[in-house]
Amino acid sequence: MPQGAYKMASNRYLVAVLCAVGFGIAAPAFAQNYYCTLKETGRRTGWISQDMYVHIAADAREIVVEDAVMQHFGTQSVNAKVGDTTASGILFRWSVDTRAGNQRARIEYRATLSQDSMKIRVQAKPTGYSNEFEARGTCKKV
Predict the structure, then answer these.
(1) CA separation for the pair 109, 83 (Å, rounded)
(2) Which residue of 31, 63, 75, 118 has the fewest CB atoms within a 10 Å radius of its CB?
(3) Residue 126: helix, strand or coil by DSSP?
(4) How many structural domains comprise the chain?
């Protein structure tokens, strides 16, 4: 997916948040927004996007993730579950339901973002399969 599509997706999310605030609807304040570039490790590839946006709420209790894999399967963004948080990093998880013909799978993702070094590690595992995928990369604040 072209990088312009990611910016468009991010802009749509920003517009939605601004509209919600403008109309008086409670919306989370995303204090930290990251654009991450990743490279898959190993021979198995294809389930972790090379580009990812991570939006972390001011209180770090809510994280929204956007990437090409979820967009390919019809989801604009996903609310991640926040795991361990420390002063230097945060662990979060999310899943994406996939479909290819009659075959369906849920891909479970786990990411660790070091806010000190700006490095990210993403792992993906299809539920019910032995395959595992991993990518590592860096993020920058946007």
Answers:
(1) 12
(2) 31
(3) strand
(4) 1
The CA–CA distances, whole Å, from 104 to 20, 65, 123 equal 34, 21, 19
Tell me, yes or no, whether 68 lies in a domain.
Answer: yes
What is d(CA 140, CA 142) in angstroms, rounded to the nearest whole number? 6
42 in a domain, yes or no?
Answer: yes
Q: What is the pLDDT of residues 35-92, one digit of tens each?
A: 999 999 987 788 999 999 999 998 888 999 999 999 999 889 999 999 988 878 899 9
Token duo for residue 101 = 């013909």
Judge whether 50 lies within some domain: yes
Query: pTM here?
Result: 0.76
Dihedral angle over CA of 14, 15, 21, 23, nearest 10: -160
In a domain, 137, yes or no: yes
